[in-house]
Amino acid sequence: MFNEANGQMERVIRKRKRKSVNQLEELALAFDTDPHWSKETLFQIATKTSLTEAQVYKWGWDQKRKKYGVAEAERMR
Known about the structure:
By secondary structure, this protein is mainly alpha-helical. It has helices at residues 21-33, 39-49, 53-68, 70-76, and strands at residues 2-3, 8-9.
């Protein structure tokens, strides 16, 4: 973020916001149904959970790494 008072860029620190129980349940249900999400599936999950597509993608990616390991998750990309 740009600070006009001193003319320099400053780092913005945001507080972490955790996903609600309902959001986690919806994400887990979708992942258990099919862990290979298309762009359309990502959009549908994001709409249902009120999360961004990036947040949904990242959650799915993290779950793949947990469940299948790093090497297998890379292949599943």
